[in-house]
Structure formats: C-alpha cells, structure tokens
C-alpha cells in the first residue's frame, strides 16, 4: 500500500490552490520582519535543493529528511546547475552576520541567504515552520498539500547567548537524550547548551588522569525516597547504585552533534562547592581528607559544606589537570566553573586555608574564594578561554576578564555589567525551568517556585534600569533545568516545553514585537508540532493566561 500511496502522491503535482493569510504565519521565535505576498510555492518530488557547501547541505538535509519520512518523496540536494524553477537555492551573502538569514519564497523558487552556517540552519527552520505541522510527523502523511506562502523574511537574533542549562548530575541523562535536547534547542534557534556535568550527586565526565571520579563519583547509593523510584533502571549499576557518566568519546560525539546544529556546548565543572562526588572519589581534595559517601539524595542537602580545600596546592593542581582535559574536549570559548553556594565553615577551621589567607593577605573566607576563582581565571585565560561562573564569584572581588551568570535575580548581572564584565542573565524569577509551571496540585512534584509560560515570556535579559553601555555587556539569557526532581527524560521534556518556546522569543525576537496574546496563539501551532515530534510538553502551561 505504501508504494501505491507514494505513486498516487507523485502523480498529482497540481499547483496549490491554498490561499495564505497572516494567520498562517506561526513562527516561533517571531522573526524580525515578514512580508506576506500572494500565491504559494509547492514542494513535490521534483523540487531540488541547491547548495554550494557542506554546511548548506546539512542545513538542507534537515528538511529533505523530513520530506522523505512524511511525504514519500525525497527532494534531491544538488550542487551544480542553476535549476531556477521548483528549487530551494542557498546563497551566501557576506553582509549577513553570524546567525542572520533572509528567506524569500516566490511561486517557483525559494532563496535562503546567509553569511554563516547558523543563518542557513535558521533559514531552514523558518521554512519548516511555514510548512503544514505534519512536516514533523514520524509517519507518512498522505493528502497533504506541502505548500508555503510567498513571503519575504528578514531575521537575526537579538542576543548571541541563547541558552539552556541541563543538570545531568542530580539525575543522569544518556547521550541520546542529550542529542534530542540539542534538536529541540536548534528548532527554537537556541545556540548554547550549558552542560552541568558536576555536582554533589554525581561526576558525569570521564577524566583520564583521575579515573575514580567516574568509578566512584558517578554512582550514588539509591535513596528510598518514593518519588524518585521512577528513575530508569538502566541508570543503575550492578550494585544497585544510581548514576552514569559520559566517556570522552561520548562528549566528543555530543559536541560534534551540537556543532552541526550551531550549538556551543559550554561545560560546567563546579568548584569549590557542589563537589561531594569529587571528594568522595578523592578525599584529599577536602580540608580534612574527610571521606564523604555519595549518599546525597537527588534532592540535595543544603548548606553545602563539603567543599574543596582552598589551602592545599594539590586542589589547584587537580583542578588544572581536570580543566586541561576539559579544554582538550570542548572548543567553547567559555568554561563554567560554578562558584555557587559554597558554605565556608570548613575553611574557617582548616589550617591549610588559614595559612593561605595569611600568606595571601586575605581578610575573609569570601576573599579566599575570590582568590580561588582568580587563580582559575588566570589559568583559563592563559589557555585562551574565558571563565564564566554563577554570581557568587562577585563576592570578595571579581576576577578580571570573568563573565558572570546572574541567577539570584538580576543584581549580580547589573553589578558585573556596571564594572564592564560580560553577563548572561538567568534570574531564578524567570528562567528556572525546575519550578512549577501550573497549579501545584495538577503538576508533578517540583522543587518549588512558580514559573508559568507567560512569566517566561516576560523575561528580558536587559534590565530596564541599564544604560546602553551596561546593556552592551549582556550576552543574552538562559534557562536552567536543575534536575533534583526530574528523574526521567519525559519529565525533563515536560519541564522544558513549551517554556523553551517563550524563552526563545525572549532571547531572539526584537523587544518591540513581544506580544503575549499573539504568542499564545502561535504556541498552539507549536503544540501540534510537539505532538508530531512526540514531545511530552506541559499542556498545563498554556492554561495560565496573562
Ligand atoms: C540553586 S542556581 C542552585 C542549584 C539548585 C537550584 C535549584 C544555582 C547556581 N545553584 O544547585 O539545583 O538552586 O533551583
């Protein structure tokens, strides 16, 4: 029957009769400008995609692969010969910077112009969102008119950091799921995956020089807590402990995959706190060589007092060696060193730390943390990398050249921008995807907080009180998915979608075009796409209106 259906489809290349109106343009994030014309272009088995580079070919494949699954025909990707009619033509335009693109659809030809690979990918994503939502299907979809409106789209992102942080320590997510997250980010024109690889509950990256980090530190005693029983069995080892880690090959594979989708993977190696997993593996990294078992429940235990010793030289030697391997793997300009929530009671009692404070003339434990981070900053900058850390790195004096990720509201971000440091805004008021998104009684257990869709939509990485000069230091914004209460991949999807759609608009679209009413219509079309993609999005999020 499949063959018959395909033959039937192929034989009816009748031009579309469909008349498009503004209501048919349901693109998220909303482009900078769209001008709708008259008529349409119809994809069929004779449509060609014409490319001149490998980057363009892989951008084109994102769509031709879809057609071969849903339409029963697979448009050919060609490199030569001006096939002017019935073709999608990729054109390099050096004037278009970074992720900018122009998409021009005429009745017999489509042009996608960009200066760089990201622009071509995003042009294709926009074209994809102009197609019927069935383009996202997993099956052949008969009787669909694969037409798109005649239109001119000009588009570029408002911010260059459009991120999502994924916590794979509290719960471990396998490589294949990370790729799915990357796919989802790309479809929303997001370009940073901040990979939270280290925390109390598990060390998730293989470090050749320190094998115990993953032999010991990646596996924790499974707690009896009821709501965590949903953890996938596959993530328990023979001993029944829970966990997992990425080998260096896994990491390379993830990075290459992300690169092909214009996504930078920024690794986070936490320090000096949130490192019980490391101290459990190598107790000498703590002030008192006190072995801590990784029996931390996935929900975590605060305050975080088992932290690296800031007095022993050995700690710095260890971290530099770890970072050397991390830099070898990750091409990212930014290396995240955490820096958050270090309760420094051990440092007060530790002879090594106290000696360090004396010799370095440091007046408080905050200054000792600042010393710690400065050393890391110097080390990273020698290797041409930029240190980024949570806003606690401001305390006791910010290292020169450091970039700040503002999470305790926007205060830290304001302070850093005022001092001429780059900033990524990720305030827990608008960007914490681990918070509830609907009425608590209807929602799966979450850490707390309340972040409905419309609140994410109000997020603006630039704070109103900022001067133009200060605003110029804001790289962009990011959502954080802390995973204490997120044991499975489908639960993770539930927390990410549709809030990612709202976030994407906050970091991509011009501020003036922000319109909740309009977005809440467009997001319904996105729901259809998510349904076809079998994404477990939170339908409840939509119930909350402005
Ligand atoms: C605070 S945000 C943390 C994380 C938790 C999160 C829960 C930040 C830098 N630290 O360790 O997972 O709250 O919302």
UniProtKB/TrEMBL annotation:
Its EC number is 3.2.1.52. Residues 25-155 form the Beta-hexosaminidase bacterial type N-terminal domain. It is an enzyme of class 3 (hydrolase). Keywords: Glycosidase, Hydrolase. It catalyses: Hydrolysis of terminal non-reducing N-acetyl-D-hexosamine residues in N-acetyl-beta-D-hexosaminides. Coiled coil: none annotated. Residues 159-510 form the Glycoside hydrolase family 20 catalytic domain. It comes from the Bacteria. Belongs to the glycosyl hydrolase 20 family. This is beta-N-acetylhexosaminidase. It comes from Splendidivirga corallicola. The chain holds residues 9 to 554 of 776 of the full protein.
């Amino acid at each position: 029957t499949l063959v018959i259906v395909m033959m039937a489809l192929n034989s009816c290349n009748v031009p579309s009769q469909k008349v498009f109106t503004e209501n048919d343009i349901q693109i998220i994030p909303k482009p900078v400008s769209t001008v709708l014309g008259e008529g349409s272009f119809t994809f069929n088995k004779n449509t060609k995609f014409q490319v001149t580079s490998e980057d363009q070919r892989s951008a084109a494949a994102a769509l031709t692969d879809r057609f071969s699954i849903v339409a029963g025909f697979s448009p050919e990707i060609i490199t030569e010969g001006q096939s002017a009619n019935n073709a999608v033509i990729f054109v390099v335009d050096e004037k278009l910077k970074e992720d900018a693109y122009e998409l021009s659809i005429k009745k017999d030809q489509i042009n996608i112009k960009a200066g760089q690979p990201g622009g071509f990918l995003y042009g294709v994503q926009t074209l994809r969102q102009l197609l019927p939502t069935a383009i996202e299907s997993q099956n052949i979809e008969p009787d669909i008119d694969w037409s798109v409106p005649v239109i001119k789209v000009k588009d570029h992102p408002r911010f260059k950091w459009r991120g999502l942080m994924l916590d794979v320590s509290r719960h471990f997510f396998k490589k294949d799921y990370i790729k799915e997250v990357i796919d989802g980010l790309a479809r929303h024109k997001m370009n940073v995956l901040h990979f939270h690889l280290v925390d109390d509950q598990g060390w998730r990256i293989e470090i050749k020089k320190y094998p115990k980090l993953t032999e010991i530190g990646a596996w924790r005693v499974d707690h009896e807590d009821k709501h965590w029983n949903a953890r996938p069995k596959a993530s328990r080892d023979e001993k029944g402990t829970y966990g997992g880690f990425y080998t260096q090959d896994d990491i390379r594979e993830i990075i290459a995959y992300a690169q092909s989708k214009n996504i930078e993977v920024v690794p986070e190696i936490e320090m000096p706190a949130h490192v019980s997993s490391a101290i459990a593996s190598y107790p000498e990294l703590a002030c008192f060589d006190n072995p801590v078992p990784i029996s931390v429940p996935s929900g975590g235990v605060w305050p975080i007092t088992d932290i690296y010793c800031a007095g022993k030289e050995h700690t710095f030697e260890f971290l530099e060696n770890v970072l050397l391997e991390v830099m070898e793997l990750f091409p990212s300009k930014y290396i995240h060193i955490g820096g958050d929530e270090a309760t420094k009671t051990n440092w007060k009692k530790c002879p090594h730390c106290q000696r360090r404070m004396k010799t370095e003339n440091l007046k408080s434990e905050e200054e000792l943390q600042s010393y710690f981070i400065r050393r890391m900053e110097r080390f990273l900058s020698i290797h041409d990398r930029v240190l980024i850390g949570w806003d606690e790195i401001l305390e006791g004096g910010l290292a020169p050249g450091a970039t700040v990720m503002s999470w305790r509201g926007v205060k830290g971000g304001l302070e850093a921008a005022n001092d001429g440091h780059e900033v990524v805004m990720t305030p827990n008021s608008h960007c914490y995807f681990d918070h509830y998104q609907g009425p608590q009684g209807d929602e799966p257990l979450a850490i707390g907080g309340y972040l409905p869709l419309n609140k994410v939509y109000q997020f603006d990485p630039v704070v109103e009180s900022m001067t133009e000069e200060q605003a110029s230091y804001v790289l962009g914004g990011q959502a954080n998915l802390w995973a204490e209460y997120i044991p499975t991949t489908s639960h993770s999807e539930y927390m990410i979608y549709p809030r990612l759609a709202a976030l994407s608009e906050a970091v991509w679209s011009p501020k003036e075009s922000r319109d909740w009413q309009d977005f809440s219509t467009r997001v319904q079309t996105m729901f259809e796409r998510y349904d076809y993609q079998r994404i477990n999005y939170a339908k409840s999020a939509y119930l909350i209106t402005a």
